[in-house]
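Curious: why these numbers?
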Amino acid sequence: MMWPLLGIAVVVLGFAVRANPLLVIAVAVGVTGTAAGLSPVATIAAFGKAFNDARLVSLAFLTLPVIGLLERYGLQERARMLIARFRRATAGRILLLYFLLRQITAATGISFGGQAQMVRPLLAPMVEGAAEAQAGELSAAQRFWLRAHAAAAENIGVFFGEDIFVAIGSVLLIKGVLEGFHIYAEPFALSVWAIPTAVLAALIHGTRLLLIDRRLKKEASSPPRNGGEAG
């Protein structure tokens, strides 16, 4: 029977109208449980069991209040001031160092970094502080551009690094998909074949990050255009 799939339609519709996500999920669970012939008590019990089984996932949200308090008491300003003291620390070099570190830690299965835990409160302010030491006062467009690069360093480093770690869900997913086409490969072999891709990603994106310093230097030596927007 396809009726239990109505819960997916509820989720899509709820997000389309931008309703409260928690309310949308709760309604979707109720619709799915009712369509599957479960009683309200059994539906709530199944929902609670699923939440309990995945409770470790919610631990990441505990860091958000801590990061918020640290930012309120000047964490970003301190990070920006600290990095400005190092003359050889440029925006591109800081991003490259973090990108390579993030790729290595992902490849070895070490829990490190994160958008909320590292990029927003520490990496982005440090990059902005280094850029200000290089190019002077930054425009709003330049700041958002640097923040985007900080976020990308996190995402790209993790994406191309984690497949090297054999005990990661993505490797097992690839193995399952290949087996569906009668192609059998060991997880270790998949991890080995992910190394060349990770190396190429490091070379290509690392070059892009180093070019940030050249662009900042060029924009610092050229007159501002249309209110100082970055090109």
Remarks:
- The chain has two domains: 3-53, 59-221.
